[in-house]
Amino acid sequence: MLKHEKIWLTVSSVMIIGFMIATGIQTFAFGMGPPSETERVDPQKVDEHEVFSEPGVYEVGENKYEVVMTLEIFSFNPGDIEIPAGSEVTFKMTSKDVTHGFQIAGTNVNAMVMPGYIQTITQTFDEPGEYLILCNEYCGSGHQLMATTITVV
Ligand code: CUA
User: Fold this and answer.
1) Ligand 1 center to residue 70 CA distance, Å?
2) Hey, where are the domains in the chain?
């Protein structure tokens, strides 16, 4: 084997092992792995579901809120949410029809909401203001109209 071949073999082996270790640390130590054992919900029976039958904003602790939200063409329910500044908000969402997106402009919140699955995402809102919520998955002819707001007061 040529010297250069040995060098490149060593370099690429080290890189592969390095990437595997980095991925392993992210997944197991930081819990950043892909979701598994996700909660399911029958998309035909969302209205009868114990949680999703009553979408709304619920205060679950001091400065803690849970927003139970259903998405359908072309709306977010509830929409026009208002919460106090400094609140930690957990969004629990599902879709009643097709795949929608849930993006809060100006934050890192950006999730896919699929029928049959429960999507949970938590965000703390420290800065007062109006935040735009957008659907960023094409969901039909009214997709561009699918938006609402969160007002932090
Ligand atoms: Cu919902 Cu696009």
Assistant:
1) 12
2) 1-34, 43-152
